[in-house]
Specification:
two-stranded antiparallel ribbon; 7-stranded parallel β-barrel; single chain; alpha/beta; 8 helices; globular; TIM Barrel
Length: 258
């Protein structure tokens, strides 16, 4: 059995910059790099791209609503065409900086409220797909498991991969518990690792009430801005390895260009 481990990185802008990107990039196999919408700037993007490429970590673009105050976790009303232009602009900017860093962007994962909305709103999912499929590089999509974005990407003929979240609690419908609710964010590395091992063995993500929800996963996300994220990712790696689960990028190829 094998699985990818990803993290949202390059978010070193303003008060939300809590993660240690260098340490996290030594642990993950894929990195979702913020593109200047919800966080980041050209210098941060370039540094994150360079660090990821040096470590052989596969690079993805992480576009989100242009809402730095809310860290992209609030829905900004936008028409589908506006969403397509926003995603194209952010991913294109990251691709340009990747060229300077001698790196390559291989997939797109929407951030925060944009990703959550695209999980259930097909026009929003289609808008993201419309941008991704015309950008250079034959980009793949990393989407919330069981989402409309998965369906939209596959209907458009794109490569689509599914993810689950290590540090987030789930609802019975397969969506994440809203961050406004108590217990939405998980912090115990041992309990998190045990839950993931059970999920990978059964295909059912354990729920707080003792039930489970069937999900598919090519990748596991540890949010880089979650307190203790580095220690959490390190323990997850150790526990997965102990269970005989290989960590491997879901998209083949390395970040550094020759």
């Amino acid at each position: 059995m094998q699985i990818d481990l990803n993290s949202d990185l390059g978010e070193g802008y303003g008060p939300w910059a809590m993660g240690d990107d260098r340490a996290m990039l030594d642990l993950v196999t894929s990195a979702n790099v913020a593109c200047g919408g919800h966080a980041s700037d050209p210098d941060t993007m370039f540094e994150t791209l360079t660090l990821a490429a040096e470590r052989g970590v596969v690079i993805g673009a992480h576009p989100g609503y242009p809402d730095r105050t809310g860290f992209g976790r609030r829905v900004i009303p936008m028409a589908p065409a506006e969403i397509s232009r926003m995603v194209a602009a952010q991913v294109g900017a990251l691709q340009a900086l990747a060229a300077l860093a001698r790196a390559q962007v291989r997939y797109v994962k929407p951030h925060g409220a944009l990703g959550n909305l695209a999980a259930d709103d097909r026009p929003v999912a289609d808008a993201i797909v419309d941008a991704v499929r015309v950008l250079p590089g034959e980009l793949a999509i990393l989407a919330i498991s069981g989402s409309e974005l998965e369906l939209a990407g596959r209907d458009a003929g794109l490569r689509v991969y599914s993810e689950v979240f290590a540090d987030r609690a789930y609802l019975p419908n397969g969506r994440l518990v809203p961050r406004s609710r108590e217990g939405a964010v998980l912090h115990d590395p041992e309990a998190i690792s045990e839950r993931l091992i059970r999920f990978l063995a059964t295909g059912n993500m354990p729920l707080p009430d003792g039930g489970g929800i069937a999900l598919a996963a090519d990748s596991i996300c540890v949010h880089g801005d979650t307190p203790g994220a580095v220690d959490m990712a390190r323990r997850i790696r150790e526990r997965l390895a102990g269970a005989g689960i290989l960590l491997k990028p879901f998209v083949q190829g390395r970040g550094r260009l020759t």
